[in-house]
Design goal:
Distance between the termini: 111 Å
Helix content: 55-70%
Number of strands: 0
Number of helices: 4
Mean pLDDT: 83
Shape: rod-shaped
Order of helices and strands: HHHH
Structural class: mainly alpha
Largest sheet: none
Length: about 100
């Protein structure tokens, strides 16, 4: 028998085995290809915990700036008076003047 006849007379199991081996080799080749193209993990300039702290700080700064603009510019008062306790007592008195709030 010639070599051509030998390849044509393969059993189904041998054909399945060859297909399975070819698939496994293809998987290995794709894995190696993906590993060679992989970019290493991103290194953050600012860590997440620091970002959270910065968000809280900027929140308080914007709250203070908004109160100063609201009281000083819109309300025609002195913007620095926003940080005085008496100003807030006065605002609470204005809000609750007609209600029964225990003092």
């Amino acid at each position: 028998m010639t070599k051509e006849n030998e390849t044509h007379h393969m059993t189904r199991e041998e054909i399945r085995k060859q297909k399975h081996e070819a698939q496994e080799q293809e998987k290995v080749r794709k894995k190696e290809e993906n590993n060679s193209r992989k970019i290493p993990g991103r290194i953050r300039l600012i860590p997440i915990w620091l970002r959270l702290i910065l968000v809280v700080i900027f929140l308080f700064i914007s709250l203070a700036a908004g109160a100063m603009i609201g009281y000083g510019v819109v309300g025609d008062g002195n913007p620095a008076d926003v940080f005085e306790r008496d100003t807030w007592y006065h605002i609470v008195d204005i809000i609750y003047k007609d209600t029964d709030v225990p003092e």
